[in-house]
Every structure is written in structure tokens, then in C-alpha cells.
Design brief:
Layout lengths: L1 E7 L2 E6 L10 E11 L1 H9 L19 E2 L3 E9 L10 E4 L2 E2 L5 H4 L10 E2 L11 E5 L3 E3 L6 H4 L2 H14 L6 E5 L4 H11 L3 E6 L2 H9 L4 E4 L12 E6 L4 H10 E9 L11 H6 L3 E4 L5 H14 L3 H4 E6 L3 H5 L4 E5 L5
Parallel strand pairs: 11-12, 11-14, 12-13, 14-15, 15-16, 17-18
Antiparallel strand pairs: 1-2, 1-4, 3-5, 3-9, 3-18, 5-6, 6-10, 7-8
Helix pairs in contact: 4-5, 4-9
GO molecular function: (R,R)-butanediol dehydrogenase activity; diacetyl reductase ((R)-acetoin forming) (NAD+) activity; zinc ion binding
Protein name: (R,R)-butanediol dehydrogenase/meso-butanediol dehydrogenase/diacetyl reductase
Pfam families: ADH_N, ADH_zinc_N
Length: 340
């Protein structure tokens, strides 16, 4: 089969590779229709890791060496294990994260914190290929009313859903989202769909315009010199950029007794005024990945009702043009079955 295989920094090859293994009783083999590219894929491509095990064997997946990328994939079941729960021909989407089900976090329902957690497309071979075999437990069915392009967004939408749950936002309340790219934009749409009043701050006026179309009530372009926003007194603030300036902004915008949810992953150590948070009892929470069995079906439901792909997806490219997608310029989906 044809697949996009990462061999090292800047070395991604579209090449012929062996077909995936026959599914075990609890697995399915998917003929991939769409696979999304995200910032993590671009980072791994540029640096050859560190999440992709190209130099050292991954402790939980056991994988080492060139890796088929792709952790945002959907398609059709071509083979199903006897205990998979999906019929051949069913359209499904994968959450991509694998959990053990036995460790304390798994038993507590926090499968995203599994001690043996690993991700298809990062820790082992993923879905940027004609076929992929994965555990059925990490998949959700896609109804007829949900297009392939929308279904391919389910994994990142699940991350937004999980962040909203971590925020424990009261109904009919207001939130601020700092950073309207990637997961931030999806968070805006998911929050607006829940009836929340969403305010958005970002450096980019184009992203702010998109946020308004996705349901933001008000937006503000952040001053690039001061890094400041006029938003103040919000009970819940989501920081999705991962920038230290974003965390400082979130602290300023949150009301005493309010809550900050850090969603964006900083590239290094981020400093902000913890004393100010302590004296005003501002809670700081974090959000990582998603709880697949809860958040993935919720994401598919949202994408079945809202056509987010029309706003979020910048282009759909065939697999042979994946390098164009990695060059940036908005959200890219790869049509695995498409031809140049």
C-alpha cells in the first residue's frame, strides 16, 4: 500500500509499504478516506521527533524506526475482528490514542492519562496510508449526515470537547478563548454550540473573523507590542496558544476566584505571576488530549450538525502533495484515495 513515512528531520517519503496486520478480535482495518495534518505533524516532520520514535524504541507501542504519520483519520472498515463491534463497510473515525484499561487512571475513567498511553501516527504507524489497523475501542461510527471532511476533524474537536469539560463552565455563562487557531477555533465552535457567550483574543485578524463566523460574540486583536487584551473579569478563560504571553493574558483577564484552563502546549518553560494567581484564588487547570469514549462520539455529533469543515479546512490534497500541506497555510486534509 502507499503511505507517508517519516524517516528523519525533513525526510517524509510517500512510498510503498507492507499492508497493516490482519485485525485481532478487538481491532478493525480501515481503508482511509481522509487524514488531517496538524501543527504536531509539522513539528515532527521538521525535527524528526521527539514524539516519533525514530531513534529509540517507544516503551509502550514497541515501535522503532520509520513511521507512518497521521493521527486524524477516518474511513471505511474493510476487515473487522469478531469482537470489534463494527461491520465491514461502516464509516468510522479514530481517536488515535491507545490506552491499557487496567492502570489507575484508566480505571478512574481518565484514559487520556493512561500510564501506557501512545498514539497512532506518532508513537507507532498511523493513518496517513491506504489502510491502517487499530483497536475498535478508539473508534466511533460516522452517520450518513456527516461528510468525510467533517468526520476527519473529530479527533481535534474531541480535544476541544475535553477542554470544555475540564473548564466545568456553568450553562449560559461567558468564556474567553485566547488563541483562535487550531484547537482554539474548534473550542469556539463547541462552546458556542453549548450556548455559551464566547469572547476571543488573537493576534491575527483573519483568525478573529473566522472565530466570529464560528460563533464568537466579540473578538479583540491583541496588541503585538504590549501583548495585552482589554478583556477583564471573566470567570473562565481558555489559553490555547501555549505562549507565555497568553498565560499572562489569561491571568489578567480572569476574575478573582475564576478559572484558567491551559490547553496550548508551551514549547518551553513558561513564566507568569503565580503570586497574583494565589492571592486572588484563580484556579489553574490543564487539559490534555481527550477521553475517547466520551469525547469522540460528542465530537462526531457536533460535526454531524455543524459543517465546521467549510470554515476550518483550507484545502484537501492528494497524498502525493502532502509536502504542500506541511508547508502551512491553514488546515489541510489529505484525500488518501485522491490522485494527482
Amino acid at each position: 500500500m502507499k503511505a507517508a513515512v517519516l524517516h528523519g528531520p525533513g525526510d517524509l517519503r510517500v512510498e510503498e509499504v507492507p499492508d497493516p496486520p490482519v485485525p485481532r478480535p478487538d481491532e478493525v482495518t480501515i481503508a482511509v478516506h481522509r487524514c488531517g495534518l496538524c501543527g504536531t505533524d509539522a513539528h515532527e516532520y521538521a525535527h524528526g521527533g521527539p514524539m516519533t520514535p525514530l531513534r529509540e524504541r517507544h516503551p509502550w507501542s514497541g515501535h522503532l524506526g520509520p513511521t507512518i504519520i497521521g493521527h486524524e483519520f477516518m474511513g471505511t472498515v474493510t476487515r473487522a475482528g469478531t469482537a470489534a463491534g463494527f461491520a465491514e463497510g461502516a464509516r468510522i473515525v479514530a481517536g488515535a490514542g491507545h490506552w491499557c484499561g487496567d492502570c489507575p487512571p484508566c480505571r478512574a475513567g481518565r484514559t487520556n492519562l493512561c500510564r501506557r498511553y501512545h498514539t497512532y501516527g506518532l508513537s507507532t504507524h498511523g493513518g496517513m496510508a491506504e489502510f491502517v489497523t487499530v483497536p475498535a475501542a478508539m473508534c466511533a461510527g460516522v452517520p450518513d449526515g456527516c461528510t468525510d471532511d467533517n468526520a476527519a476533524l473529530a479527533q481535534p474537536v474531541s480535544i476541544a470537547m475535553h477542554a470544555l469539560d475540564r473548564g466545568q463552565v456553568p450553562e449560559d455563562s461567558e468564556i474567553l478563548v485566547i488563541g483562535a487557531g487550531g484547537v482554539g477555533a474548534l473550542l469556539v465552535a463547541a462552546a458556542a454550540d453549548r450556548g455559551l457567550t464566547v469572547h476571543v483574543a488573537d493576534l491575527d485578524p483573519v483568525r478573529l473573523a473566522a472565530a466570529r463566523r464560528l460563533g464568537a460574540a466579540t473578538t479583540q486583536q491583541v496588541d503585538g507590542q504590549t501583548g495585552a487584551t482589554a478583556f477583564r473579569g471573566l470567570a473562565t478563560v481558555f489559553e490555547t496558544s501555549g505562549a507565555a504571553a497568553g498565560l499572562r493574558m489569561a491571568l489578567d483577564a480572569t476574575a478573582p476566584g475564576g478559572r484558567i484552563v491551559a490547553v496550548g502546549l508551551p514549547g518551553g518553560t513558561a513564566e507568569f505571576d503565580l503570586r497574583a494567581a494565589v492571592v486572588s484564588e484563580k484556579d489553574i487547570r490543564t487539559s490534555s488530549a481527550h477521553v475517547c469514549r466520551r469525547d469522540l462520539p460528542a465530537a462526531v455529533d457536533l460535526l454531524s450538525r455543524l459543517d465546521l469543515a467549510t470554515e476550518i479546512v483550507a484545502r484537501v490534497l492528494p497524498l502525493d502533495r502532502i509536502h504542500d500541506g506541511l508547508a502551512g497555510g491553514g488546515k489541510t486534509l489529505i484525500d488518501i484515495r485522491g490522485k494527482e
